[in-house]
Amino acid sequence: MRSWIYLHFPSLQLDQLLLVQPELKDCPLVLYDDSDLKLKQVNRTAVELGIQPGMALSDAWLLSSELVAQAVLPAYEKQLTSQVALYLYNYFADIALSEEGGLWIEISVMQRLHRGQLESVRRLRSKLRTLSLSYSMGRATNPAAARVLAKAGVCLEQCEVTWEQAREALQSLDIGYTELQPEVIKKLRRMGLYSIGKLLNMPLALLGRKLGDGVVNCVAQLQGQQPFALQYFRPAVHFHQRMPLATEVFSWQGLRFPVNRLLLDLEHYLRVRQKMTRQLKLTLYTRDKQPIRVLLSLAQPTYRAQDFMSLCQLRLEREPLQQPILELALTVNNLESWLPGDQKSLTAGNQTSAQISLQQLLNQLQTRLGESRIHGLTVTQSWLPELAQKRTKAGTPLPQWQESWRPLWLLNTPLSVNINQWQFISQPERLQTHWWHSPNLQVQTRDYLLAKDESGCVGWLYFDYASEQWLLQGWGS
Amino acid sequence: MRYAELHCLSHYSFLRAASSPEEMINKAQELGYQALALTDECSVAGVVKAWQAAKELSVKLIIGSEFKDPNAGIFILLATNRQGYAQLSALISHCRGRSAKGHYQFSVNDLLVFPCPQCLLLWLPFASELPAEIAAAVQALFEDRAWIIVERHLRANESGQVKRAMTASQLYNWPVVSCNGALMHDSGRLPLLHTITAIREGQQVSQVMPKLTVNSEQRLRSLSELQDLYPQQWIEESARIADLCNFDLGSLRYEYPSEVVPVGKTAQEYLTELAQAGIKKRFSQGAPDKVYQQLLYELKVIEDMQYAHFFLTIYDLVEFAATQSILFQGRGSAANSVLCYCLGITAVNPAQSELLFERFISKERDEPPDIDVDFEHERREEVIQYIYRKYGRHRAALTATVITYRLRSALRDVGKALGFPPVQLANMLTRLDRRDSEEDWQQQLQQMGILQHPQGQHLLFLTEQLRGFPRHLSQHVGGFVIASECLSDLVPVENAAMSGRTVIQWDKNDIESLKLLKVDVLGLGMLSALRKSLGLVAQIYGQEYQLATLPQEDPEVYTMLQRADAVGIFQVESRAQMNMLPRLKPKTFYDLVVQIAIVRPGPIQGDMVHPYLRRRDGLEAIDYPDEAVKAVLKRTLGVPIFQEQVIKLAMVAAGFTGGEADQLRRAMATWKSRGQLMAFQEKLIQGMLNNGYSDEFAKRLFDQICGFGEYGFPESHAASFANLAYASAWLKFHYPHAFYVGLLNSLPMGFYSASQIIQDARRHQLTIAGVCINASNWDHQLLGSPGSLFIQLGFRLVKGLSQSSMGGLLKQRPVSGFTQVEEIKKLNLPGRDMEALASAGAFQSLAGHRYQARWEMTSLGQQLPLLEVAEQDQASYSLPAPTAKEDMVEDYASVSLTLGMHPLALLEQDGLLPTYKKANQLAELRSGQLVTVMGLVVGRQRPSTSAGVTFVTLEDATGNVNVVIWQDRGRQQRPQWLYAQLLEVKGTLEIQGDIIHVVAGRMTDRSSLLPTRQVKSRDFH
Fold this sequence. Notes:
By secondary structure, chain A is α+β, with helices and mostly antiparallel strands. Chain A contains 15 helices and 21 strands. In chain A, the strands form five sheets. In chain A, strands 16, 17, 18, 19, 20 and 21 form a six-stranded antiparallel sheet that branches. A five-stranded antiparallel sheet of chain A has the order 7-1-6-5-8, sandwiched between helices. In chain A, strands 9, 10, 11, 12 and 13 form a five-stranded antiparallel sheet that branches. The longest helix of chain A is centred in the middle third of the chain and has 22 residues, at 252-273. The radius of gyration of chain A is 31 Å and the shape is elongated. By secondary structure, chain B is of the alpha/beta class. Chain B contains 42 helices and 23 strands. A seven-stranded mixed sheet of chain B has the order 1-2-3-4-5-6-7, sandwiched between helices. In chain B, strand 5, helix 5 (132-141) and strand 6 (146-150) form a beta-alpha-beta unit. Chains A and B meet through helix 3, helix 11 and strand 18 of A and helix 7, helix 16, helix 18, helix 38 and helix 39 of B.
């Protein structure tokens, strides 16, 4: 008989946050749904303050001003579930992912290897213990029943679980543990059908007539009478993991632990797949600026977190963080097999420069000089010349919004000029600096004019009221 | 050099300009301008404020407005005289009238339809020519009264605009005039201008840079700056235009609608006639001489002030209401006059109360009379429709209410504009203690670490600047302005958000400033309840009563009030009022007037309550510094309790003139912080000292004035409310069945939910029958006959039930009722309604218990083909009946109350509750005793006057327990009490006379014992 285990993770993202930033353990920590600002996961400290899942975030703030709040990230939860699946994939063959962030493991297929289902359960528990995650486990003869039991926290301990035992365990459980639509659950309750047992005892056809085929399918799946479509887990081809941080991190010291965690996950990924890499990309996300991308390359491929960590340390310690970091991501695209391959030239030898596309050229330049040294230029919405252009990703086309005339050639630092050597040829344009860059909302005023110098060149000058001097901002044509 | 600013927008061009009309006027004066035209975009909403500011200054105010044609440019019309103003107002009304609230439509073609011959036209062209097809016509119409505007803001490509203007000037032979196009009075407002631009665009400041002005030149600039920018001739032209504009807003004269006076009579004659007839009717035994003399005095004042039309207009409305059996009651300073009693506007008998008659209409203060008329809230619309029918929509519109930025809205919008994440803003808004004074909000935010954010300082500064800025015009709750001819000749009219409603562009303060009259048509739930209750008394008992004919001063009614048996009684049912009833022990109508006025934040904050009680109980001597003060305060034992007493004291003790007292009254009425009142502090105190009053008396009086704020009640309002309080108490005592049914059928209103009112009714031994498919109507009914009456709950109680489909069911219900469920099924009512009825237990007589009924009534709209075969033999299926606990859960889920056992009794029966004292046992215990009480949390209140104390009301099976949570205890145990539905409180019992409460010690949230989460509490309203 087939037998299934379902693992339900009620607070996967929260657990991960506490693993990565253990200093938050004593803070009330909550995860909320971004769409309605209701709490989804809360830690023990928060519970002790009276904060409960389902509560409005604003109410939670009323109960604690020390609250650390972060949005639930469904994609991240999914990634975390996949990581757990990848880990368990070492020990269990048939693993399937559920939409709501849990896992099924068919343990009957491992029966012979593990010499009995209870041994499989024991091993599974032992492996899960190393992950330090909250979970509950359910066992049954079909996936649907296993999931309900797991969500209810009921784990049968028999050597081999039968349908009768599962059914018995399901009897008293609330119908809220099923996958029925909330409105159907509400209707059932209003008829006094609170428990799964009562639901299973109802005539199926009549239930369908009253409440639709959703109920029929649900009951049939619970009874194992209808197949249950499972999405089996396969390890990803590339490695990419994001890791949000619960609090902003201001220094490399604060990043060490989370980065190490990511590198350990990478090591595990590479080991399982018997791969190595010599290049990885670490992305540091800040609040509102461009993310910081750090490309780390090794002369020889490796899979060991320790090697990568030393490299990270060397690289990141040299570059102090300009802004607090909110999130990290680690990406590895180029995997190599265990055997070292040929060392290829960075540029293909037989291409002429005319044949190289912009994209290729940029790639080659970035590979040779490093990503951070190649960038494009774009115009911004700012009216201030010094802010009107900024660096952007290489190859980004120019936006169209610039309306007013500006000289193309702007000086990095405006030069002081003797105004007597210039002749004005335009009306003044008065620009004021951005108050939001000044702590006390002060603005400085400049009057810009076009003027010709003695040799007839057209310069873009301005009078700076703060320093009371004329300066050359750029050259026109 | 002479200069007039002819293009200037104030913050009444919502989210476009960053200064108030007053700031603009004051700055124009400071800069030496000859005149300033306030030209808000298709609006004159700010002109009254500007007019008031300009009254004492030399700068002349010109009334105008800006209209934008996206293709042709900006057109400004300036009124040269009264007719020009009416033409401008009509054009604004026209442009606003064809757009939704807050918008307008204008094209240059409108100038051909509305040529506004008494207005001047200024044009800021987007192109150098007008659209070809109308150019000649416009040129001909505005031949010698049009100008071309040039505005230089020192931006790139500005020369193009100047060239366009010059070309247009030559083409149409219209002279050029220079303007600032001011959006702010001072360059310091640039950050705010940028911020409101971002708010308008719904984006962050840094994201809307193309829409931001790059410098602060769009302000009122100095004459020397203007001289650097424009030729002298263009500047001088502005002053020449200003000389042509000679309209003063103060010259607007209100003209009354004439149809309220019969042909052949003057308004005064007709009013006197009605008054004489009224006094005979009201005092059938003959009016006391004092009352008659007062009536004559009032009529004389009205004649002198020419207010007869106003009273006749109100009389006309209440007459209409009376013919339609709509209950109403007038209130306001002029309402509680003998005249209003005689005209039937109010039912407060002047012989019975001791109102200050001189407040009726104060000649000295030259205030317009104030009468608000409350109508039944469910039928107010009928009165409004009557006004529209009688006067036409072109003559009647509602006054506007200017919705302004308050702290929270300003903080939210500025925060968004500065790029604060929504969650961080939500956090700040939540943690700002809304009950604390708003004065220290910046300090609170700083404590939250706001200054660590790079924009934190900006947030504090800009929020403070934005507070008080208008956001949009909304409709006043019921203030109508009715004109003799076309209302838009007086003030522009625009669409309100509500379909079919129009509002004028001025608010009630503007109306008051210009001495225009408005008629307040308000809705009041208690009047609906009283009308319904009085109807039932007539129907069941055959006793016809009206508000004015209820037996007065009934001692039994007062005895009931003294016991604080006041659930559902108008104005005295709140927790604070109920606490006061046993202490104040009202014995007369005037006691009730005092009771209503005294339990208000004003008197409480001003520390007037305790002195009053001590003096009333003879524990403190009543003394007056002199006879003048005695005359004002005698009736309230030397303690100022009513708002007008405070005003009167300012006049008699501090020597305020009528005008100054009026300013003080306005400062109190619009009180938001102590700031505005502080301006009066020195004058008041010094005035009293000069008149020989002691320093201590002067300071105490000032503190009392500050305490009053906007919350203090005028005596006349309190008297009108006391009248309704007495009426509802009288009904509750003598006809409780009718009282409860009337009240329940008028919900939502007041402090209590249907559940609490029904609990109260059951404590008064009334019988209540649950919702029944054969006995219930939509409304609750009083059934049976005297001696065996019971309240039959109606379908209106059932959650999610549609009134229209129940109307269909009721029409088809046989007189003897349905006998089978199948009959009802055949009516094909929506499944949702049938299921709601089933869960409410309405089918109990036909289909057994509610689970079974719900099962029977549930069906899919469409059959599943595969299942059709199987259904025949399985159509009937018996579900087990609900237990008592499940019944209770269903009761709360379907009708929000239970007629079965109280949830606490049920839990107790199941042995789930620890030992506790019940509400009806507390009176027998010793004050100071430690007790444990338990109950459903049915109310949480934290009055702003209570210094952080929270009052929680617990309901057990025997009654309510009042719990007091002191601030520190509340903070420590917030998780326990803030969201609990079932709360256990260990604390100290305090008994003072009839007042019993428990001061909370340890609290435990027992909500998990409750099988339902549907128990609702009325919190912090």
